Amino acid sequence: MRKGWLSWLGYCVLIAALPLAMLGAVSEANEYRAMGVDALDCDGPLGVLLFSVPAILIYAAGGILNARRFRRRRSAMVACLCGLICVPLTVNIGAALRESNRPDVRDGCRSATAQSVAPSVSRLRRYPVAST
Predict the structure, then answer these.
(1) Considering the domain boundaries, does residue 98 fall inside one?
(2) Is the pLDDT at 127 greater than 80, yes or no?
(3) Is 11 helix (H, G, I), strand (E, B) or coil?
(4) Is residue 95 part of a domain?
(5) Worst-scoring range by mean pLDDT, 20-29, 84-93, 102-111, 114-123?
């Protein structure tokens, strides 16, 4: 086998992860606010992080590995492209974390979760366990 097959495999992984990175970069943390509606989106930040975190891990690793051989033209170009892809992913991850840490989102989503869990807890309390 040729000596450089591993680098070509790395390039193929970066190309295959490009749709994941694009979904992570363009998805909104609050989809309702993006449509113009002022409402809470409890699962919006999770949807952003689902695509952004794996993509930024792949492209950060690709950037670091290609930056080690920065004197080669192809490696320098790939490292710069990986860096350019990581910038909007980082911005979108920060926006998603900022959205999930807003006080009204934390209170509203926590109360919605508590309301959905409360009926099941009350059903369990209806039938007390006999103590021995």
Answers:
(1) yes
(2) no
(3) helix
(4) yes
(5) 114-123
Furthest CA-CA distance within the chain: 77
Residue with tokens 């949807």: 47
Q: Per the structure, how many domains does the chain have?
A: 1
> Going by C-beta distance under 8 Å and a sequence separation of 6 or more, which residues neighbour residue 78?
11, 14, 62, 63, 66
With left for phi above 0 and alpha for psi between -120 and 50, is residue 37 left, alpha or beta? beta
What angle is formed at CA 43 by the lines to CA 57 and CA 53, rounded to 5 degrees?
A: 0
132 within a domain of the structure (yes/no): no
- Cβ(69)–Cβ(7) below 8 Å: no
Separation between Cα atoms, residue 128 and residue 69, nearest integer Å: 68
Whether pTM > 0.85 for this model: the answer is: no
